[in-house]
Amino acid sequence: MVQPLLALRGVSKRFAAVQALMDVELEIRAGEVVALVGDNAAGKSTLVKVISGVAPADKGVIEWEGGPVQIKSPQDARVLGIATVYQDLAMCGNLDVVANLFLGREIHRFGILDEVEMERRTRELLKTLSTRIPDVRVPLATLSGGQRQVVAITRSFLSAPRLLLLDEPTASLGLEQTNQLLDLIETLRDRGAGVLLISHNMGDIKAVADKVAVLRLGRNNGLFDVNTASQEQIIASVTGAADHSAPHLPVHPEETWP
């Protein structure tokens, strides 16, 4: 068995009187897409904040390539190679693609912005990730929702992350834009990155995920192999119709996605 890139062991997180996560277990391997699903208030966003260092865990162990690590801040996560793309994207619509990619980490030469080098790196990275942005010098606001998502994910790859956290990346996209983004996720997996994908869309999950981890009321409620589990099984775990105390569930080969 290949050692996990990231492993959470008994991770818990509380906000005042609210227990957001309780004894959560999760493993993500390099070159693997794990979909994280659950109803509202299941703890998905909190788990992403724990992994990204925005809201450090209260207890439990986080392992990176088999060894325990401390993720107490976003900087700690970045040093390990963890990048996060949130739903709101946090980009500037009035700036062009190049400026958004290098926002806060601009390249200078002799004390002035090196626009030529930043544009060269932008085009090189877009080409490497097989993404399609026709003009990197147009304002971001003129691009489609799918293209803006692509720019956000591409920006995260400036630091060559080994694990990418995606929070509902296709929530506001049309069919064509969604397909482009799913192609990008497959490209990232093929390049050896681990991906944690938060999504409510079972079609997207079926298309790109290898495993599905279910959270319910802040606890593990199932871990499924996409190739052998049925959609009904997963939905039952999300809604609580199937309540499981262990993260690993038996799946039956005769049950397949519809």
CATH class of one domain: Alpha Beta
CATH topology of one domain: Rossmann fold
Question: Architecture of one domain in CATH?
Answer: 3-Layer(aba) Sandwich
Helix/strand-derived category reads alpha/beta
Strand portion, in percent?
A: 25-35%
| Count of DSSP strands | 12
Give the low-confidence spans: 245-258
Shape: globular
Q: What's the gyration radius in Å? A: 19 Å
Quote the average pLDDT: 87
User: Strand order of the main beta sheet, please?
Assistant: 6-9-10-3-11-12
Largest sheet: 6 strands, mixed
CATH homologous superfamily (4th level) name of one domain: P-loop containing nucleotide triphosphate hydrolases
Q: Determine the number of helices (DSSP H or I, runs of at least 4 residues).
A: 8
Percent range of helical residues: 25-40%
Question: How far is the first residue's CA from the last residue's CA?
Answer: 29 Å
Helices and strands in order:
Blueprint: E1 6-15, E2 18-28, E3 33-37, H1 44-52, E4 59-64, E5 67-69, H2 74-80, E6 82-85, H3 97-101, E7 108-109, E8 112-113, H4 115-128, H5 145-156, E9 163-167, H6 175-190, E10 194-198, H7 202-208, E11 211-216, E12 219-225, H8 231-239
Parallel strand pairs: 3-10, 3-11, 6-9, 9-10
Antiparallel strand pairs: 1-2, 1-4, 4-5, 7-8, 11-12
Helix pairs in contact: 5-6
Summarize the structure.
The chain is of the alpha/beta class. It has eight helices and twelve strands.
What does this structure look like?
- The chain is α/β, with parallel strands linked by helices and 258 residues long.
- It has a domain at 6-81 and 161-239: P-loop containing nucleotide triphosphate hydrolases (Rossmann fold, 3-Layer(aba) Sandwich), CATH 3.40.50.
- It has 8 helices and 12 strands.
- α5 runs parallel beside α6 (175-190).
- Residues 6-242 form the ABC transporter domain.
- It holds the Pfam family ABC_tran.
